[in-house]
């Protein structure tokens, strides 16, 4: 585990985030893999990929400065894997045209930082997922980390409820737009009680950070729907606190090395660490390989071209999960078993759908 050095800074947030990236790379990366890293600017994860013994790295970033920086870092580190670097916008450009020679070459595509930026519009999210599918080999995985909109929206709704309980009917049209904790502050740009499926912006500022980051909430059912359109099947979306608990035996030593006062002596997350790590989630999709195993079964989600109101988010159960006709009508004995999960991927067979304490509409009623 010492092969994943984690920068020691004063920021709990940065230590935990670097740990999370190290952990998910350790699970998915395997020797001789070809990896495509979206939004790779800075090259902060090059050491992690080297420790995973990959054979080839494809770095893509929207900024020319980011590409220059990661290329210089790779050259200075003299890593054991070969590398290509491209300046391109995964949310707006067509990789099938621009990167034809890289089509179907990547065993893994990861987006460890900026998936949420692609949810400003439905078209940008759709373009990203089609580009991912064009890069992946059949059987390859698309994975990464993004802020957990389920957790964030639940915290926001609790603020709204508490405000109305205090103010009664005196100010019915004013909605608080800020979430505060000891470690961070989240501010929504527009005060509202509805969740647009795309373009819901907020500012996230951690303690000790100079400036705030601008993000968009990722609506997970829309992510799954658009992924299926692109030919990617849903595997798992899991809050990082549960991801850590599922893999604590393997990763407790790593997080202890990330800095002091993040976990207790038994490796359990301390409250502050739990609060920060709980703001994020993993996401995992697979490009099915019809020659190896049948595709995973993803539910067909209701059309997302509308705005969800507060009552829909607070429904006790998500009713009406739709399945493909061939899956719904097939006899159980005719359905082949699902393919096994990748090594070390927690408890996918027992996974609970889209996790986190958020609204019921962000969760499935049954494990897939």
From TrEMBL:
GO cellular component: nucleus
Pro residues bias (residue ranges): 334-343
Membrane-spanning segments: none
Catalytic activity: a 5'-end (5'-triphosphoguanosine)-ribonucleoside in mRNA + S-adenosyl-L-methionine = a 5'-end (N(7)-methyl 5'-triphosphoguanosine)-ribonucleoside in mRNA + S-adenosyl-L-homocysteine
EC top class named in words: transferase
Keywords assigned: Methyltransferase, mRNA capping, mRNA processing, Nucleus, RNA-binding, S-adenosyl-L-methionine, Transferase
Superkingdom of origin organism: Eukaryota
GO MF, one example: mRNA 5'-cap (guanine-N7-)-methyltransferase activity
Residue numbers spanned by region Disordered: 322-368
Enzyme Commission number(s) of this protein: 2.1.1.56
Compartment(s): Nucleus
Domain MRNA cap 0 methyltransferase: 8-288
InterPro entries: mRNA_G-N7_MeTrfase_dom, RG7MT1, SAM-dependent_MTases_sf
Pfam families in UniProt: mRNA_G-N7_MeTrfase (PF03291)
The protein's name in its UniProt record: mRNA cap guanine-N(7) methyltransferase 2
Annotated organism of origin: Populus euphratica (Euphrates poplar)
